[in-house]
Amino acid sequence: MFLTGSNSYLLSGDLVTKLTGRYVETEMFTFSYAEWLGMRRFLGLDGVSSPSLFREYLAWGGFPRAVSIGDERVRAMYVRDVVSQIFDKDVRSRRRVKDVALFDRVQSYFVNNYAAPTSLANVISYLDHTEHVRIKRETLSKYLKLLEDAKILYRCPRWRTCSTRI
Fold this sequence. Notes:
By secondary structure, this protein is mainly alpha-helical. 52% of the residues lie in helices and 0% in strands.
């Protein structure tokens, strides 16, 4: 049995306890820029790195199928559908998010601030003062866990240095 795509989050929950010792998990991500260029070359397209190709990669992401779609409208629809399915079906529906509007704001905050160091207190403060939305710490933590379990977000612990005296 193979579990692929965003549905692989099932392996992080109850199913993994039933399969203990009988499965191999391999995480796969969308294409890196180098892989994306390689796929373009494989498909007979321009695969020489350039600023315009890098902008295209950033705009459409590294979804393998999107590389082979030439029509921009069709490509945009494909990427939108894939992302929508991940958020709508795999996260909101299966995990029964009650306040979808609040979840969308939380998800939007983390996706749009993906590389910024943050804390639950900072997010709560931002939502309260900027978005005028109140959220409990427990709810925010639950929503963040949902996004992590669906492999949409990855926790990146701070690198701590040890000070040594010479």
